[in-house]
Amino acid sequence: MMIMMQPGASQQHISRIVARAESLRLPVQLSRKDGRTTIAVVLQGNDYLFEEFAGMDGVAEARPISNPYKLTSREFQPNDSVVSFNGTSVGGGKLVVIAGPCSVESREQIIETAQAVKEAGADALRGGAYKPRTSPYSFQGLGEEGLEYMAEARELTGLPIVTEVMAPETMPIVSKYADVLQIGARNMQNYALLHAAGESHKPVLLKRGMSSTIKEWLMAAEYILSHGNRRVMLCERGIRTFETSTRNTTDINAVPVLKAQTHLPVIVDPSHSTGHWEYVAAIARAGVAAGADGLIVEVHTHPEVALSDGPQSLKPEKFATMVRQVRALGKALAVG
Amino acid sequence: MMIMMQPGASQQHISRIVARAESLRLPVQLSRKDGRTTIAVVLQGNDYLFEEFAGMDGVAEARPISNPYKLTSREFQPNDSVVSFNGTSVGGGKLVVIAGPCSVESREQIIETAQAVKEAGADALRGGAYKPRTSPYSFQGLGEEGLEYMAEARELTGLPIVTEVMAPETMPIVSKYADVLQIGARNMQNYALLHAAGESHKPVLLKRGMSSTIKEWLMAAEYILSHGNRRVMLCERGIRTFETSTRNTTDINAVPVLKAQTHLPVIVDPSHSTGHWEYVAAIARAGVAAGADGLIVEVHTHPEVALSDGPQSLKPEKFATMVRQVRALGKALAVG
Amino acid sequence: MMIMMQPGASQQHISRIVARAESLRLPVQLSRKDGRTTIAVVLQGNDYLFEEFAGMDGVAEARPISNPYKLTSREFQPNDSVVSFNGTSVGGGKLVVIAGPCSVESREQIIETAQAVKEAGADALRGGAYKPRTSPYSFQGLGEEGLEYMAEARELTGLPIVTEVMAPETMPIVSKYADVLQIGARNMQNYALLHAAGESHKPVLLKRGMSSTIKEWLMAAEYILSHGNRRVMLCERGIRTFETSTRNTTDINAVPVLKAQTHLPVIVDPSHSTGHWEYVAAIARAGVAAGADGLIVEVHTHPEVALSDGPQSLKPEKFATMVRQVRALGKALAVG
Amino acid sequence: MMIMMQPGASQQHISRIVARAESLRLPVQLSRKDGRTTIAVVLQGNDYLFEEFAGMDGVAEARPISNPYKLTSREFQPNDSVVSFNGTSVGGGKLVVIAGPCSVESREQIIETAQAVKEAGADALRGGAYKPRTSPYSFQGLGEEGLEYMAEARELTGLPIVTEVMAPETMPIVSKYADVLQIGARNMQNYALLHAAGESHKPVLLKRGMSSTIKEWLMAAEYILSHGNRRVMLCERGIRTFETSTRNTTDINAVPVLKAQTHLPVIVDPSHSTGHWEYVAAIARAGVAAGADGLIVEVHTHPEVALSDGPQSLKPEKFATMVRQVRALGKALAVG
């Protein structure tokens, strides 16, 4: 519920409401605009509490939060969230570029790639150790061995690591190594996994389901936030449409829509959303121009022999050019 | 791989190949046509075995299985699979009707509904105890309590029960009660769950993902079959399209496509695929006319107060009419 | 607007309202239910007339027609429309089967096919003389020559002919030969063509646009009806979705939705909606079971050499089997 | 067909081939790379000419054009087309901004808007006099009166005018006033109209059909080019998908895909592709960043009373900000 305080409401009035919410373990958020305070409280289904809060001293007006997602909404929290990990911050104005291979294939591969993307200007390293694959007979990832190689690459380059967690069972092992937990498109509505991510202390990169509406995506984020973890980033990775000339259709509209609806940072994945390396730089630029806070890009030193996603992986030189372009754009936008 | 034996191949030749496959724990399937034997063997990624099998005595010709799904394909197994549980058989020619509420809401509700659908001619009872809900604040199901009520309803009516399992963690508890494990649309590519279902000894009703292609669906089934469980039924529950006058778009084409591609039984869910009770009977009839082996239909004794899916639930009387219609159609088709 | 008359309203009251509407050249429709008369009048944008009609003697109540399509709605006309041509009636309870090749390719081909489909039980002959083709370099149809061959086939077999009109310019020449004017999916929102069809005196078969919603489709029909032609049939021919295993996705839900929303007859085209001859019979049966008034099916005596749509054309024998199946289904449904 | 000349082929050899193509009225295009000449000739279905050309003196190698669209392909013409009208050039490197209301509603409105967009930096004026409307009862445009007002606005501001032509019948009247003929999304496969546009001498802005693939769109352009008009611009205006938070989904991927496949200029319409004015600037920036040659944007001085598309129209001040942003981006990209 949104509680608008009277213009002259005292700090004590405000504190009492906040304290009451906290004693009930309800999420609460303060904001101030034009000298008036608004207190957002998520009732989490306990709708009978509405009257109690509405009747407290200093309250001018109260109404329900209008969206079905609460904690996730910009209504609840008007200011942008900034998600930080290992010295990197997403959502704070500086464009963040995450790069690396689809899968960790070997120690050499991930270390070589980490050094190449670091040099090209990346801020974080991506790479999958547990891979969701359409076929049970395809390469399923190196598992913990892959995580160890990523940790080694982090040590050498200083890049924080982003890697996918596929099941609640592997949450502890993935959390041991990862700086950011990625939840993949196929798992966007795997509620047991969202629940586990909500109880984790790691930032989460939540990919949009292949055919999920923006509203469903924000509801999936709400599962994580409502279980206690507010460090969530949303990643647009293309949606499924009738068009077949690209692997998916980048829903570029989602960027400004999310910016209007939620305070969470927005990341664009131009690799999965196009499926062809030659379109990646154009869509990376478009994502930044539309207002994204970051990019996550597949880079492989030898795409032609990649065990997965070779056709959509940039070589390091092309990636370096892309980084220069998006940094230049970012500057032009900051001025404009 | 598909191994076509020579016309005069001896039983011994055949047995040796089967024994070799079994010693390697590879799935194997025999079929005979026009006096010749074909042996299908799924190599499960061990492609180097191809030459060994192709070179064995009595082999006329060998080629890979042409589909990416192997065990699931009609190529591997030309004859229809029949999935049986508690005296009910799906895929054996008789139309099977599964009915019941979306969620188990109370002991009285599920028992009353079970008796009503039994009387109306249903063959099995559906009902969810663990519910995947878009919002973390919605009713999430009664859990084990709900399963106990279903078991009681089974005892009273004799109807086997079909209920959803949402996570590997709850597989043991759901398996303790269920006759058929349902895997929901949102979990169609939850590989940890598919893996667990593959190791279970219960039949599985695998719903199609909201935006999954038929090929992806068959690959998801392959995960279950390749982990040891061949008792899988496929359930078309509507796909997501641009049309908004119904909740989903029933992909009726999927019925004959599946019948051509796979030996697994096909069930149509006219409730989720339309979202409006007034269209359910028409789509149930269409599903049967297109060749489905069964239907799964939401029935609620008081849809107006249902905790979920009220608008698409039939009242028992309407359901009884629908059953009469589809049984009459089934007869007309059997004659034709 | 919907004008509900008082229970005791006299025939004179009713006649005055009807006469007033007719003097304004507004479409008007009477219906009676439970002894009360309702008069539907389409104001055609002249909303200021609402008050005048509402204030006339004998009127109990008046309200706008709730749908954006008026003449097309079941609200305006509660009873099913029956569209008749050359002794054939669509919408009157008997299932109508229209069959023939995609394109008229030669005199021999169309005559041979007409005789074959007649013998197999078809009620009308389809065939295109003007063909909308994706490529400017593909065969564009025989034009008037093709129409002449169709007329000859009609003379020989007695089958009325259904053929496509692509542009207002060719409306006169196509109307000279056709019994039913087909408007193709690509032209569903070609308003100049809809306007011309509305001024024509021929029945119209209006195909659904590849990605048109049911509402847009009914609005397209409204263009024809509002320009004076009420003899419109709606043809579901599959919609564009993400699924690629069939050419289009048959929106079988559209059949009961249309039956609820409009009084116009509904035809299903299982050939375009699947794109593969082996799925045509299953979808034809599904269409009938869902409540369609008719089918339009591509039949070719030599599909392997067809100039267009060969893969989705049935040979006459397969077509004959399909007709037997759908007639049997029709009977079973009539009883049920 | 693509004719690769020998390295030492003489000018005479080249001229003879070109002359032969021209004598047959076949489209022909020369290009040079690494000192070798390639001659592209579109056979327009006369495949028997292949051998003749392949056998001419100086030819090293010949092969068919690999795409189904020929004149439209980058294979046929490697260099970007520049489409010029009234002193404005699209495709030549400078970003072109077309702006104006959805419909011409009155003389005052279009003149006031023309002056406002001119001042804000627009290069051309858009406005519809003939409007394709879903409902036959909606405002259908002012017709020729609207065109006259647009011509007056052109005279006052110097802005060339872009306006829609809906039917071959109105081609002469629209051509009399328009600088650029717009073909709308609903008419993208209206072949009679494409044919007429091909015979026109005006540049054409061809909007993508709501659910047309890029390939179908290029084939529609091929209809225009193959009938003699090479001055075609392609306008991405959003596609229909399952997402409903925006009116359409901008297919931003289409920009780099088109740049790879065709030499024709690409325009992005952020107004129709989002349907909400608050997202227009973000998508305009994204379009430019992805490589578009121009933008077409709906601007209305009083969106709240617009007869059509009010919610997606920018007010002039917002439009001016958008123009500043995209010009700044354009500069940053040119440097990068």
Word description of this protein:
The structure is a homotetramer of 336-residue chains. Helix content of chain A is 35%, strand content 18%. In chain A, strand 8 (124-126), helix 4 and strand 9 (161-164) form a beta-alpha-beta unit. Chain A has helices at 11-23, 49-54, 107-120, 144-157, 171-177, 191-199, 214-226, 254-261, 277-290, 316-335, and strands spanning 2-5, 28-33, 36-41, 59-63, 83-85, 88-90, 96-100, 124-126, 161-164, 180-183, 204-207, 232-236, 266-268, 294-298. In chain A, the strands form three sheets. Chain A has an eight-stranded parallel β-barrel with strand order 7-8-9-10-11-12-13-14, surrounded by seven helices. A four-stranded antiparallel sheet of chain A has the order 2-3-1-4. A two-stranded antiparallel ribbon of chain A has the order 5-6. Chain A folds into two domains: 2-63, Alpha-Beta Plaits (2-Layer Sandwich); 83-335, TIM Barrel. By secondary structure, chain A is α/β, with parallel strands linked by helices. Chain A has ten helices and 14 strands. Chains A and C meet through loops of A and loops of C.
